[in-house]
Amino acid sequence: MLEIKKHTENEYLTLEIQGDIDASSSIHLDAAMEEALGQNPGAILIDASHLEYISSAGLGVFMSYIQELENKNISLVFYGMSEKVKNVFQILGLDQLLTITETAEDAKRIANEL
Amino acid sequence: MLVVLDLVLLFSNMNNMKSGIRSELPHLLLSLFFVFLFIYYRYIIGKAETVNFIDLLWRVFVTGLLATIVSLAISFLFVLLGNNKISENALLINFFYHINLGLIAAFLISTFVVWKRLILYQKTRKLLLTWQVFEYSLMASILFNFLNFRLLDTSFIVLLVLLVVMGLILSFNLKWVAYLNFKQKWKSILLILLVILYLWYFLINLFNFSTKYVLVNDLLNNIFILALFGFIFLYAVISLLVILFNLPTSSVFEQKLEEVINFQRLSQSIQTGQNEDQVYDILLDSSVSAVFASAAWLELDPSAATPKNRKILFNLDELDCERVQATIEKSKLRLSVTDSIGQSNTSQFSGALKDSSFRSVLIMPLLVKGNETGRLVLLKDVADGFDKEMIDIIGTFVNQACVSIENFQLLNDALKNERYQEELKIAQRVQRSLLPDALDSNPDFDIIAFSEAADEVGGDYYDTYRISPTKIAVVIGDVSGKGTSAAFHMSQMKGIFHSLSQLDMGSKNFLIQANDALSRCLEKSSFITLSYFIIDSESRSVEFARAGHCPTLLYQAANNTADYFQNKGLGLGILRNENFSKYVFVNSFQYQAGDIVVLYTDGITEARNPSLEEFGVERLRKIVQDNHALEAKQIQEQIIQELYAHCGHNVLNDDYTVLVIKFK
């Protein structure tokens, strides 16, 4: 039960994630990330406002792209995350490596600054 | 058999000599002889298990040949002794006549039994009944001999005609003819012609005897024999004509039969353990022979499960194939409006082709699990070479092949799944074995752990290590991912834990070293969350660091509160360089009697009830707060009990581990 919508606006590529990311659906997330990176956008924004749940496998997907994003100089910014999901990122410490903001506007602004 | 025959004959002759004693006796013996022959042949011929028509006819032919040779020899003897007085000897004439008679009877009856087998091939109940009436009537006619009627008596004629008419009706059962192939038909014609020849010869022979000599027991007066003659002759003639007229159409029947056999091969190919390639081979062969295609190829799509774009060619080479393919594409565009037959699927195509060597083409797509996995292309050197019938049969072949392949793939999937399940079981065993049987402890605290794995293998890990008599390292961790790879990473973690702990390097260095080691061996998307504790009984203090693992819950007896440590930390394997050290934070606290540390994995806090409500950290905190007076074991039991109560019958789909340390 995972749906990923992709839309591009200027240099921002937004992935709108809806539903749960568990071990099995993380494969789709991985494919979507791979595809997004392939387009070489200025920044990838993750709209997590409809992300209900993320398992360690899902976190692993984001984690596995950190190095590549850095190499390609693409910034990755999350926004709209629920408290619960944000907590998962925080426990693992990913909030220290990834940029998590509140709104799409914040995300765009921060993506530019990075 | 012949010995008995001769004995009977001789006996019969002896009786003839003493004629006048009893006139019924020779009849009786003759009848017994007939019945004996009848039973004998029925037994011999009926024994043949498989129906091989040519063999049956061959048997008739051989019997006839033997009878004819002997009979010819006798005639020759008569010619030799022609003018001799001996030939006038009634006894001798009768003796030879009886040998003749016996042979002819044997031939007739054996042929009769063979005819019976042929007529009753694919019998119906009605046919069987008619046949039985006929057979019993014939048997009855043996008895009729006792009445001693002469040839040409009215009742004799009536009965004879009746039997022959019955025979004629039965003679139109010739289903076996259809099952002969072209060659067999020619053989049958030859054999049946010979049978007719024998019949004619025997009849002439009998007439000769009958007219030339005075016979004690004239066979021509025997209604049974005459009826047999009539019946066998009729059936022979009718079969002959039917076979003759069937000759031109036999190829069609053979074709159909071959189609059925090919169809069967396709459908059975999976059971016989053949692989996909063999199914494709059979499909191509069958299709080519079914429509007499001059050339064909089968191409398999690269996107399917097959490794590469493969082609199986028949009667043309790669270059030809490419040329034809290009031509087809052109023709298809032009003709798709008029000639395409695919209503339901557009890639099916049949039409004319403007090519140097081929004039018409039939393309049939291969659909496996609803996806087009390839196509079969048949070519012919004549225009309009594929009629509706052919397209249908090819469609059936292709369907059957696809079903076979689909089944094959399903079977493979099932096997793969089974193997996967087996692997999981092994991984589960490995994982269990990685968890310690007993935990190290010191007199000033109790430690108890509980861990349960979900259906699949998870990656919950906990362990202890005695660094020194007063120092014990405790670890709890969760390996991301599931299945065999999780178990594998967990075993790496265990190795790292045991080797680094003995170096007594402190929790910060432990995490940095562990991250360094894991960075080299973890998969790109894998990480391990961990909390590492060193309990020092001498200073009654705990030093710990958290690497992305769930916050530690601590109950302090001094202020009677349970709370989580809110320190930062980063999972192992996430940042695979020296920067990781920036994210390691060490905590420490002094413990007192009654203090409780609860370690757990996210399987506990993220466990959801049917309405998707998580167990959560607050519930866990409250349990510890409320039950702080209990022993470590009881607190652990309380937590698990409440966890089950929360989830209800909802199956837990993650591993869950809880570890309780209570200080004294």
Automatic annotation (TrEMBL), chain A:
Task: Kindly indicate where the leader peptide sits in this chain.
Answer: none
The STAS domain sits at 2-111
Which family is annotated?
Answer: Belongs to the anti-sigma-factor antagonist family.
Q: Where are the transmembrane segments?
A: none
Name the InterPro entries for this protein: Anti-sigma_ant, STAS_dom, STAS_dom_sf
> Superkingdom of the source?
Bacteria
Gene3D superfamilies hit by this protein: STAS domain
Q: The organism's lineage?
A: Bacteria, Pseudomonadati, Bacteroidota, Cytophagia, Cytophagales
Q: What is this protein called?
A: Anti-sigma factor antagonist
From TrEMBL, chain B:
* Listed GO MF terms: protein serine/threonine phosphatase activity
Chain segments annotated as transmembrane? 25-44, 56-83, 95-115, 127-149, 155-174, 186-203, 223-247
Report the Gene3D superfamilies cross-referenced here.
3.30.450.40, PPM-type phosphatase domain
Query: Does this entry carry the keyword Iron?
Result: no
Keywords linked to the UniProt accession: Hydrolase, Membrane, Transmembrane, Transmembrane helix
A Pfam family the protein falls into:
SpoIIE
The residues covered by the PPM-type phosphatase domain are 442-663
EC number(s) given by UniProt: 3.1.3.16
| Protein name per UniProt | PP2C family protein-serine/threonine phosphatase
What organism, scientifically named, is this protein from? Shiella aurantiaca
